[in-house]
Design goal:
Blueprint: E1 5-8, H1 18-33, E2 37-40, H2 52-65, H3 88-100, E3 104-107, H4 111-123, H5 139-147, E4 153-156, E5 163-168, E6 172-177, E7 185-187, H6 195-205, E8 210-214, H7 221-230, E9 237-241, E10 244-245, H8 261-266, H9 271-280, H10 294-300, E11 311-312, H11 315-328, H12 331-344, H13 352-362, H14 372-380, H15 388-395, H16 400-412, H17 419-433, H18 437-449, H19 457-464, H20 466-476
Helix pairs in contact: 1-10, 6-7, 9-11, 12-13, 13-14, 15-18, 16-18, 16-20, 17-19, 18-20
The structure holds one RNA strand of 75 nucleotides.
RNA sequence: GUCCCCAUGGAGUAGUGGUUAGCUCACCACCCUUUCAAGGUGGUAGCAGGGGUUCAAAUCCCCUUGGGGACGCCA
């Protein structure tokens, strides 16, 4: 395939939604796979709702995911500007042409009039559409409206005969009756383009070859195709990817939990995991591969592998994938990425080496970066607390006190406080006393860590150090 | 209401006329093991329903049902 040009065209009216991120990802993957261009175009024609903050958040999200664009904001290219609001000249140029050719006309109907039109159509069991009242009005009539100070909108004269077909790369052929479509508005009374018109003209101007977007745009497509035809432009290829649902099979929204990609960023998900997971929603390879390095993903991504049906976002699977990536990561990088979370928990980070080691001892257990402080704090802090479980299920148990006091004595006499020596000492003690290892291991772990789970007992003891271990055992005796 | 799309276990999916319906997550059990994980082995669970076509249907056609989307001077 030659000169593939695709775009992601968000409107800056809110956060970058998971669904949007997935659409961006598919476009990006498609572009990278075909060595084409990925363009970011900001659809900010709704000046009421567009904000700079939203734009910032979207850009931040895309950057975090690593979806770099070849043309777009902060990356000017041949086909700019890349903010739709700055393209009104282009839109008007195309609109003028349609007017000249009689393919568009001015409409002076008020919002109230339109509303009652729609209501009436609906009551008659017809699709709510504009009734074409201003389609063939005389110049006199127009003049009269103008004199009244009415501001017109520009409507597209939609052909009412025949059907419009979409040859969708994912869905195959879809067809729509033109008679069901109305003369939709292409320029608002403010003179700015509406979505359908702006998209088409900008896609033409930017030489977009493939329009890859959410399923929810299918019903817009016939209108857009009609526009392409009226403008005499060749159609891009269309590929409508399925939507993402929440667990109740309804459109993913706030109540399903986090939907903004920046939230995942903040919670300590890894970019690689997020990208991998998003790719798996609505796309797959025939061998059901689950884990993809980025290059591999680019290499294997095809629209053919996209499914037609909506998919449900599964937070559990995302977590699993995140854990997979955490386990694969080298310890320096992991520690580095965990830093913000560790700092946030006020842990002592002066001794980098110690910190690294602590993280590595818990690496296999980490799912999210934000879990890290809670997993390692007892190894770094001087004072620890004891969990209810550690007290009730272990320390309070018969015999714990004696074991702890014996072990404390043994430790006192140790010179080489190493993992190896510690293990030998404890095992020897078990043999001597004819105790099951658990009878000793468990109280010792609880006494020293304050909890019932953690890294291997002896590495942990060595790491915490003789002095602190002794102090903690003594402290723990209060609970026995 | 009108039009459109979709339909394989709880979730993501493979499968394009002949398979014991495969894989991943989740769940359960066992193994490993000082704990928690990780890992290993095994298990529960699925072609929405009904009609066709065919020697043969998850796969092709029709209907029903269910879910979703669109119908704005929003994008």
């Amino acid at each position: 395939m030659k000169n593939v040009r695709v775009r992601f065209a968000p409107s800056p009216t809110g956060y970058l939604h998971l669904g949007g991120a997935r659409t961006a990802l598919f476009n990006w993957l498609f572009a990278r796979h075909h060595k084409g261009s990925f363009i970011l175009r900001i659809e900010d024609t709704d000046s009421q709702r567009s904000t700079d903050e939203a734009l910032e958040v979207i850009i931040k999200g895309l950057r975090w995911l690593g979806l770099d664009w070849d043309e777009g904001p902060e990356k000017e290219g041949e086909y700019g500007p890349y903010f739709q609001a700055q393209r009104t000249e282009v839109h008007r140029k195309y609109a003028d042409r349609l007017v000249r050719e009689g393919k568009a006309y001015f409409c002076y109907c008020s919002p109230e009039e339109l509303e009652s039109m729609r209501k009436k159509a609906r009551e008659e069991g017809k699709p709510p559409k504009y009734n074409g009242r201003c389609r063939d009005q005389s110049d006199e009539q127009r003049k009269e409206y103008e004199e009244q100070g009415r501001k017109p909108v520009l409507r597209f004269r939609t052909r009412q005969e025949g059907t419009t077909k979409i040859n969708d790369l994912i869905h195959g052929e879809l067809s729509f009756e033109n008679s069901l479509l109305d003369d939709f508005i292409i320029l608002k009374s403010t003179g700015t383009a509406t979505y359908n018109f702006a998209v088409v003209t900008d896609d033409i101007e930017m030489k977009i070859t493939h329009v890859i977007r959410g399923d929810d745009h299918i019903s817009n497509t016939p209108r857009q195709i009609l526009l392409y035809e009226a403008l005499g432009s060749t159609l891009p290829e269309f590929a409508h990817i399925p939507m993402i649902f929440g667990s109740d099979r309804a459109k993913l929204s706030k109540r399903h939990g986090a939907v903004a990609v920046t939230e995942y960023m903040k919670e300590g998900y890894l970019r690689e995991a997020m990208v991998n997971y998003l790719a798996l929603l609505g796309w797959s390879t025939t061998d059901s591969q689950q884990i993809f390095e980025l290059d591999d993903l680019i290499n294997k991504f095809t629209l053919k592998g996209c499914s037609k049906s909506a998919s449900v976002f599964d937070f559990k699977k995302l977590e699993w994938l995140n854990g997979e990536y955490v386990r694969k990561m080298n310890i320096d990088e992991l520690t580095e990425k965990a830093m913000p979370f560790i700092l946030d928990a006020n842990l002592n980070v002066e001794d980098k080496e110690k910190l690294r080691k602590a993280v590595s001892l818990e690496q296999e257990k980490i799912k999210l970066l934000k879990d890290i402080p809670g997993l390692i704090d007892f190894m770094l802090k001087d004072d620890i607390g004891y969990t209810d479980k550690a007290v009730a299920k272990v320390l309070k148990k018969e015999g714990s006190r004696e074991v702890l006091s014996d072990i404390m004595e043994k430790i006192n006499g140790m010179d080489d406080f190493s993992e190896k020596e510690l293990e030998e000492m404890v095992r020897e003690y078990c043999r001597r006393k004819d105790l099951k290892t658990g009878k000793v291991f468990h109280p010792l772990r609880a006494a020293v860590s304050g909890r019932t789970t953690g890294p291997g007992l002896f590495v942990m003891l060595e790491f915490i150090g003789k002095e602190r271990v002794l102090k903690r055992i003594e402290e723990s005796m209060k609970y026995t």
